[in-house]
Fold this sequence. Notes:
Elements: E1 2-9, E2 26-31, H1 36-42, E3 52-55, E4 58-60, E5 71-75, E6 98-101, H2 106-114, E7 118-120, H3 127-137, E8 140-143, H4 146-149, E9 157-159, H5 165-175, E10 195-197, H6 212-215, E11 221-224, E12 230-232, H7 235-248
Parallel strand pairs: 1-5, 6-7, 6-8, 8-9
Antiparallel strand pairs: 1-2, 3-4, 3-5, 10-11, 11-12
Amino acid sequence: MKYRVTLRFYEELNDFLPVEKRKHDIVSEFDGDRSVKDLIESMGVPHVEVDMILANSMSVTFEYKVQNGDRISVYPLFETLDIAGVTRLRPRPLRDTRFVLDVHLRKLARGLRLFGFDVDYAKDRDDDELAEISAAEKRLLLTRDRQLLMRRIVDRGLYVRNTDSALQLTEILERLDLYSQCRPFTRCIKCGGRLKSIDNEEETHLIQNVPPGVRAWCREYHRCTGCGAVYWKGSHYDKLAQKVKEILKKEVKAP
Length: 255
């Protein structure tokens, strides 16, 4: 049987389409049964970027079998709008502050950790491992690999549009509306472990590797509960604090 359907993609989902198809009705013709998920991804749009689908103004799931003459409307993540009463494509909103990042996003991983988010990152993982971690631990997968996001086991992910690491960080905070969840300087930027204040005599041995010049003036230290790295408020901290302040546009309060 020959099928002819009309699709329309909204907002940032248009980024995945050829210029001539953006913000316009798209007529698609094909033979045989096809799920709406398969149809959407055939257009180059990863399913994890989609949060709601309407078929003839009725909310449907990814498993919906497209019917001849259907009008399909495809919407991106809704993080700030109330869409109660319609069928979202996941049991709860996609937003999740636990991430796993592709190997090419090292600077973004460090940036998200700086703002207090739980980020799983390693420089030597392949696509299979990234997809498995995302699915098993319910972590939101961030990548610039569109095909990785189209894997069936991945149901939480975002395609990172910017190539500049500073812009990538702002992009993720804005797209997922995460500003209220930011907790700067509460995690280790190296491994993502939580930071704990070194505030008793029994732990003073932990700062023995701190440069003598720093120990001469510094009285406040924090230790990573994961890798053991020790942090203090030196010139590097001041630079990072200024970066955080500029992004959050408000005064930074250290833990």
